[in-house]
Amino acid sequence: MKHSKVSMNIGFCLFAALISGEASPAFAQGLAAGQDAPDFSFTAAAPLGRLRKLSDYRGKPVALHFWATWCGPCVRELPLIADLTESRADALTVLAVNCAEDDRTVSAFLSKRKLRLNLVMDADSKISRLYNINAIPQTFMIDENGVIRSIQVGSYTKKELDTAVSALLSPR
Description:
Number of helices: 5
Number of domains: 1
Structural class: alpha/beta
CATH topology: Glutaredoxin
Shape: globular
Order of helices and strands: HEEEHEHEHEEH
Distance between the termini: 48 Å
CATH architecture: 3-Layer(aba) Sandwich
Radius of gyration: 15 Å
CATH class: Alpha Beta
Low-confidence stretches: 10-28
Helix content: 25-40%
Strand order of the largest sheet: 5-4-3-6-7
Number of strands: 7
């Protein structure tokens, strides 16, 4: 079992490395810009142990970012996501969904790199399945009404991330 999970993780990472970096809703199999973001529950790290739902963030845009510690493109992009989490906290909520890893692994990884995230643990992959995640990193930009505005499969450059956030935050 462990071997197949590692193989699947490597497959995800290799696939993500091949992605051109352009937004591609086709990879989200059935989820596309203009659709309502599927709601889910999670236990928030801060305040510790509080049960939250994605829909609790209605009224404020959300960047929903899927990642893992074993994924090279994710690791390279994560400082941009952490910076976005802190620099735009007034206008945007960033939720960093860790895909199928345990708390200890993720905590050690973030601590070593001194990264602060609004972390959502998806150890059982329920959220990843709900969003049909088949490649990481993957980011869903969700507007204040809970509607998906864009999907990025593959890692962002700083400029691409800034452009996506600006588009999400601009009045429609």
